[in-house]
Structures are given as C-alpha cells and as structure tokens.
Design a protein that fits this description.
Elements lengths: L2 H18 L3 E6 L4 E5 L1 H7 L3 H4 L13 H14 L1 E9 L5 E12 L5 E10 L1 H26 L4 H15 L4 E8 L4 E7 L1 H6 L1 H6 L1 E3 L8 H5 L3 E3 L22 E8 L2 E9 L7 H67 L5 H33 L6 E4 H18 L3 E6 L6 E4 L1 H17 L5 E10 L4 E10 L22 H6 L5 H11 L3 E7 L3 E12 L11 E5 L3 H13 L3 E5 L2 H10 L4 E5 L7 H15 L6 E6 L6 H7 L3 E5 L3 H11 L2
Parallel strand pairs: 13-15, 19-20, 19-21, 21-22, 22-23
Antiparallel strand pairs: 1-2, 1-5, 3-4, 4-5, 6-7, 6-11, 7-8, 9-10, 10-11, 12-14, 14-18, 15-16, 16-18, 17-18
Helix pairs in contact: 5-6, 5-10, 6-10, 10-11, 10-16, 12-13, 13-15, 17-18
Keywords: Kinase, Phosphoprotein, Transferase, Two-component regulatory system
Pfam families: GAF_2, HATPase_c, HisKA, PAS_9, Response_reg
Protein name: histidine kinase
C-alpha cells in the first residue's frame, strides 16, 4: 500500500518534467505507431497544439519521401534500444525542416517493448551552415581550377567559368555578356549550348543593345543582382526580349563591377529549386575571382604583345647590327691577324715600328667600332654573361701590352703591379673583363699628359674557391671634380664635354663599363682630385681554378671559315700553338670533312653563304644522335657585337663562343677549355 503514493508521485513528477521541458519530447506506442503524448515544445515546433497530436500517427510529422526510411530505423531501434538519426519533419502548414532525432525504447516488466521516447532538434541552421560551407568550398575549388588551368585566351577562360557557374548554382543554362557602359552594348562571350541553340541568329550576331534584351538586362539597369523564380509569369520587363525557344522557369542575373563600372553581365537559369540570396553570393564570389584571373590574363596578353613587338624590333636591330659589325670588322680581321702573325717573325727595328703603328691604328679603330656597336647592342639586347676558363694574368698583360706604345708616345709610364700569389687560371667572362680594363686604361692614358698610369691586379680567394678580382687604374691626369664623379658613368657624359674634343673619343667607355660591371655582379667607382689625377676601382666575382689544363700536339681542330683573311689568320695562330688544323671553306665542306674524320674541336663561323653555322651545327648534332657518335665540341666564331646572344648559341647546339677578330690569348683559353 505504501508504494502506491510513491508511484503516483513518480508519475506526476515525470509528467511535470515532460511538460515543462524546453526541448522537444514525444511518447509513442510501439504497437500502434501512434503518439501517446507530446510536450508543448514538440507541438510548437511542428505548428500544432499538443492535443492535436495525441493519438495521431507518428508518420504525420514525417515528410512522405522518408516514411520507408523511418520504418527501417524503427526496426533498428527495436533491436538496439537506442538510436540517433537525421530526417525531415513536416509542419502543419506543409513546410519542411531537417531534424536530429534521438529515440529510446522503454520495455515492460516482461521485457516486451512498450513505448518509445524521442527528442527532436531542428538542425536547419546547422544544415544551412554546412551546406553553405560546402558550397563555399566548391566555389573555392572552382576558382583554384581557373587559377591553375593556364588558359591561352580569354574566351577559353570564360567558357570554363560559365560551366563552373552553372554547376555551382545547380542550374541548367547560363551566359556571360561583356558590357560597354558608354555604348550600352552587350557582347555575348560565353553561353551554354541550350542558350546558343535557342536563338542561333542572335548568337551569330553576338551584340545587343541594352534596351533590346528585356529582363535579362534588368541587373544592369538596377546595378544589382536580380532573382526571378517565376519567370513564366507576366512581367512588363520582358518586353523587347530576344526571340528564342529557350523556356526559362527560374532565372538569376548579376552585374560584374570594376571601379564602379559594369563590365559584364552573368546569368544562370532553370535550377530545380528556387534561387536564393545564397546562390547570388556564391555566383558573385566565384565570378569576382574569375574576373581577377581574366584581368591578369588580359594583362599578360597585352604584355606578350608588347614583348613580341619589342623582340621583333630587337631582332631586326640585332640582325642589322650583326651585319654592320660583320662588314666593319672583316677588313680589320685581316689587318690585326696579319700583324699578329708578322710579330712572330724576325723584324728589323724599322719594320717593328711600322708594325706597331698599324697595330695601334687598327686597335683604335676597332675600339671605336666596338664602343658604338656595344652601346647599341646593350640598349637593344641587354648583357649576357659567358663564363669560360682563361688566364687572368695573361688577359691583363695583353691589355697593358696593347697600350704600352700609346703611353710611350705621350711620354707616360704604363706600369703593371700584380699582387703575389695571384692565380693563373680562373673561370669568368674574360672578354668583358678585358673590355672593362681596355676602357679604363685607354681613358687613363687619354686624360693624362705627364706622369704615370698604374694598373694593380689582386685576387682575394675564399675557402669555397670563389674569389674577388680587384682592378685599380690610377693616373696623374686632369682629375674629376667632385660634383662630376657620379655623372661620368652616364652615357655621353665626361667631366667636361670639351675633353671629348680635346682628347678624342665618344664618351661611351665608362657608361659601357658601368653596365658591364653591374652585369658581372661587381661594382665600379672612382676616387679623384681635380688636377691631381684619378683612381678607378673595380671589384668582380670570379672562380679560381687550381688544376690548369694543357693541350697536346695531337689536338686536332677543324676550322670552318669562308673568309680567306680570317681563315689565314686563325690557321697561322693555331699552328703556332702546335695544333693540327684542317680548313673548310664553307659549312658544306666542313660537314663532309667532319663526317670522314674525328676532331677534338670545331671552330665554326656563323655567317656563311648557303649554309650558316647555326644550320651546320644542328646537322652535326643530328648525325651524332642518329649514329651514336661522341659529341664533338663546336665553338662559334662571331663578331663581338653578337656576343650578347651567347645563350642562343648554346641552345642551338654550340659549346662555346669566341669573338672575332681572333686573338691568340682567346684561342689559348678556348683550347684549354676543351683539351683532353
């Protein structure tokens, strides 16, 4: 008897908890599949009064399409005793919402299933956030695809962008117009197949006036996105719409803005579900990113067009420059080559004097030509650095030797001071280093009327083999005013332009030096006092070579040269070096000789009639590949003005480049580079 009040208290207490709970609770009968009781929160969530659901079927609150799924879940619940699942509830007014349901079985004293107690939670917000995140990630992935695709043209990009936009919004059709605000004209740039096939004539025309596309242009007129989920309804804005067979049910369009101007119009249509503001946000986000890619692509195309125009102009200038250089230098090749060979013979003092006069005059003319052509070459092509093995000491001594007689004629002493332990063999751009030193020594002699010109050479070697070359050229000449010292490295600038007339020259040397030193990764500066003299200092990075290479007398060279004087000079120099030389007068003969005989090195002129050096070396490489023949080093002979094309020579199959007119020191360095 005493337990009955307690049970009654438990029931009352349970009923109070059940009714007052602020979460949704429902009690249903397992046998009848009907509600026994629901609390106020549960009924309110579904738009009912609690008594309206009493004795109602539990399937009343489930969307019809999930009934079978719910039946399977209830079987699972009866077996497990407790489950959690997600489903779709339907309110009294017919609206639907996603729910998370947690259900538990209560059994009687005999273990038979009696009741189910379930709680349900509206997860609309969570589901919406999850779906929005998924759509955001899809949008990001679509943008990444556009960024990574590497489209070749804007049309290709817009076609892909439209395809992604249609997929993102779960639409069936779409288009992209480019809009010109000033003319109010729209140009169709991308469209889905359904759009194109529905009004072929208009697509072929491709251009519409804003007033001629009706509702499609409303997003431009209002300067904001437009959503139309009942497209078939009467709408006065449809007037003047292009005639077509495309049946639209739902439609969304939005303008693309840049700097407060509309630049494009994007539209998608015929989604199964109504379009929402979320669709608009996704479309705006995606198309905004797409337009960033498009603008970069257009900028790239514009830069490429400018670059191609500049390269075309540079090629024309380069070819003209090469031809001019070739024609100007060819006579000098013979003169300088002849003097080099004559200097190796027994001469009387008088002959030696005349020979030096020829050498000095020819060298001066070559220097002027080189300065002019170098300046044009640097302006049009830039500077290409070509590193090779060479003797730093020999290179500097050659420059000093070149100017010794010039200094002597002016009554000057030209002195060279080489620091102890200066390495003999280094790797660097020997031609550029010679050119820099030529300019500095030439200037020092030019602007010094009495006293000395002193050249100092030293090398600071680091542990990793890298080194720093230090060159200083000091004179006791006119000096440079402090305010002029920063200007002398500019083109056509000397400390006083009257010096150009007084001392000769073009005022180009230091400007070219400055650019060459910068290209080699070094620095150049001047320390000077007016009327007392100047000291020019240069520091250049270089690599020291510890093991010197040397050729043997059986080293064989094939010389391919169509100019008789140049061939005579090169042959004489090579044979004086103890090398075996075979001469071919053109590229065809050179190829024929090379196919019959192996050579340690081929020296190939690049400017020959019928077959150029470039074409010849490509044929050599082709034969080597086809026959499995060992690669023969082929070095191009080119006038100095074309030296900036060094990378193109290597890309064409050459192994190196040597400047014309040929100098013994350059030949020795080249031979050492390829000797066994």
């Amino acid at each position: 008897m005493s337990q009955k009040p307690d049970r009654l208290f438990d029931v009352v207490q349970w009923q109070q908890v059940f009714e007052s709970a602020d979460f949704c609770l429902a009690l249903s009968d397992v046998a009848t599949e009907r509600f026994v009781s629901v609390n106020s929160a549960f009924a309110t969530q579904l738009g009912y009064q609690p008594e309206e659901l009493a004795d109602a079927s539990i399937f009343t609150i489930y969307a019809p399409e999930v009934h079978d799924q719910v039946r399977e879940l209830l079987v699972d619940l009866d077996r497990k005793g407790h489950i959690v699942y997600e489903s779709i509830h339907i309110r009294k007014d017919g609206s639907r919402f996603p729910v998370r349901v947690e259900a538990t079985i209560f059994r009687d004293s005999h273990g038979c299933t009696a009741f189910r107690v379930s709680t349900s939670t509206d997860i609309s917000i969570q589901r919406m956030q999850a779906e929005r995140f998924i759509r955001y990630m899809r949008c990001q992935n679509a943008q990444l695809k556009l960024y990574a695709a590497g489209y070749s043209c804007c049309n290709e990009l817009l076609d892909s962008a439209l395809e992604e936009a249609v997929a993102l919004t779960e639409s069936c059709v779409g288009y992209i117009f480019i809009y010109e605000e000033d003319s109010r004209l729209l140009t169709l740039y991308a469209w889905s197949h359904a759009v194109a096939s529905s009004f072929t004539a208009q697509v072929e025309r491709g251009v519409w006036e804003l007033d001629g596309i009706g509702l499609w242009g409303e997003a431009i007129r209002q300067r904001k996105p437009i959503i139309t989920n009942d497209y078939v309804a009467d709408n006065p804005l449809k007037k003047n719409f292009p005639e077509c067979s495309l049946l639209l049910e739902r439609y969304v369009s939005l303008p693309i803005m840049r700097s407060n101007r509309i630049v494009a119009l994007v539209g998608v249509g015929n989604k199964e579900q109504p379009y929402t503001e979320d669709d608009v946000r996704q479309l705006q986000l995606f198309m905004g990113g797409c337009w960033n890619v498009l603008e970069r692509l257009k900028a790239r195309d514009e830069l490429m067009a400018v670059k191609e125009l500049a390269e075309s102009s540079a090629r024309v200038k380069g070819e003209l420059l090469a031809n001019i250089s070739h024609e100007l230098r060819t006579p000098l090749n013979g003169i300088l080559g002849g003097t080099q060979l004559m200097a190796l013979t027994d001469l009387t003092p008088e002959q030696q004097t005349y020979l030096e006069m020829i050498e000095v005059s020819s060298a001066h003319e070559l220097s002027l030509i080189t300065s002019l052509l170098d300046l044009v070459s640097l302006e049009s092509e830039g500077i290409q650095v070509a590193e090779q093995l060479f003797s730093l000491v020999v290179a500097v001594e050659d420059v000093i030797k070149h100017y010794r007689s010039v200094a002597s004629e002016k009554g000057l002493r030209l002195l060279l001071d080489i620091a102890p332990l200066t390495p003999e063999q280094v790797i660097g751009d020997s031609v550029r280093i010679r050119q820099i030193l030529h300019s500095l020594v030439g200037n020092a002699i030019k602007f010094t009327d009495q006293g000395d010109v002193i050249v100092n050479l030293s090398v600071v070697v680091e542990e990793n083999g890298a080194a720093l070359v230090r060159l200083t050229v000091s004179d006791t000449g006119v000096g440079i005013a402090a305010e002029q010292q920063k200007l002398i490295f500019d083109i056509l600038t000397q400390s006083d332009m009257s010096n150009t007339r007084q001392h000769g020259g073009l005022g180009l040397g230091l400007a070219i030096c400055n650019r060459l030193v910068a290209a080699l990764g070094g620095r150049i500066w001047v320390e000077s006092t007016l009327s007392l003299g100047s000291t020019f200092k240069v520091e250049l990075p270089i690599i020291v070579v510890t093991n010197e290479r040397q050729w043997t007398q059986d080293f064989s060279v094939l010389l391919v040269e169509n100019d008789h004087l140049s061939a005579l000079t090169a042959t004489g120099l090579l044979r004086k070096m103890g090398l075996a030389v075979t001469v071919a007068v053109d590229a065809y003969e050179g190829l024929s000789i090379w196919q019959r005989q192996s050579f340690d090195l081929v020296l190939m002129d690049i400017q020959m009639p019928k077959l150029s050096g470039f074409e010849a070396v490509q044929k050599i490489r082709q034969v080597e590949n086809e026959q499995g023949r060992k690669r023969t080093p082929v070095v191009a002979q080119a006038v100095y003005a074309r030296r900036n094309f060094h990378e193109s020579f290597l890309g064409a199959g050459f192994d190196g480049l040597i400047s014309k007119p040929l100098m013994r020191a350059d030949l020795e360095e080249t031979i050492k580079l390829f000797c066994r």
